[in-house]
Design a protein that fits this description.
The protein has about 240 residues and is of the alpha+beta class. It has 2 domains: about 190 residues, no CATH class; about 45 residues. The chain is built from 4 helices and 13 strands. The strands form 3 sheets. It has a 7-stranded mixed beta sheet with strand order 3-4-2-1-8-11-10. β3 and β4 form a beta hairpin.
């Protein structure tokens, strides 16, 4: 009877944990080689109460950015039935992302000339989902992982050349919707138009505007002279 009650409790808890994990990263890469935006990692309240969500390495965002860097604010997140952490970024330098010369899994944003590259992985596969020693425990763990609400979005100041994520229609944003248990490749390449090309285009546009203005003035002057000549001929006759 006790086993049946435990089973009913597990099933009830599983059904109540829809979207029990929330990971929402909304970042914007700025032209000055910095990043702004927010990163949220939280658990549904009923699950957060079972353990300490502040434990080290409890969040998959831990290896993304240096939490003590200038421009990074870490605060408690408690909203919409979720409890966790929120990272607010305000023009944080690229160098504060990843762990310098760390492992390939580290999230890095780098700029070389006119090219911005995002590299690394978001590793969501580290959770133990099959070693609990309990068939029902394993089923519960898998149910929790499959119901996670995960989204990563990065906006860039120029068009995206290539990415493993979903590129927006204007090619300025990339979005990933990973699943728990996966290792997500975040590789993305962005090309910023050359300054020389921009200057040439701007100069050409200015030149065309000047030429157009001169042509307009000459045309207008000729028209005025023609009207004067016509009026003079009319008076003479």
């Amino acid at each position: 009877m006790r086993k049946i009650a435990t089973l009913i409790g597990i099933i009830g808890l599983t059904l109540s944990l829809t979207s029990c994990v929330k990971l929402d990263m909304s970042l914007e890469v700025n032209k000055d080689s910095t990043v702004s935006g927010t990163m949220i990692f939280a658990l549904v309240d009923s699950l957060a109460e079972m353990g300490d969500t502040s434990k080290e390495n409890d969040s998959p965002t831990d290896s993304f950015v240096n939490p003590t860097a200038k421009g990074v604010t870490v605060s408690e997140y408690k909203q919409g039935g979720y409890t966790g952490q929120k990272f607010t970024l305000d023009h944080v330098p690229f160098s504060e992302f990843g762990n310098g010369e760390g492992a390939d899994s580290d999230f890095k944003i780098r700029r070389a000339g006119n090219r911005i590259t995002v590299s690394g992985f978001l590793d969501l596969s580290s959770g133990d989902t099959g070693d609990s020693g309990s068939e029902w425990g394993d089923a519960l763990a898998k149910s929790i992982l499959s119901s996670a609400d995960l989204r990563i979005s990065i906006k860039f100041p120029a068009k995206v050349v290539a990415s493993t994520g979903e590129i927006s229609e204007d090619r300025h944003s990339v979005t990933w919707r990973p699943r728990m248990g996966e290792k997500v490749d975040l590789t993305t390449t962005v090309e910023i138009p050359s300054l020389k090309v921009g200057l040439l285009v701007g100069a050409a546009a200015s030149l065309m505007a000047i030429v157009g203005g001169v042509v307009f003035l000459i045309s207008r002057r000729k028209k005025q002279e023609s009207n004067i000549a016509f009026e003079s001929d009319s008076t003479t006759s």
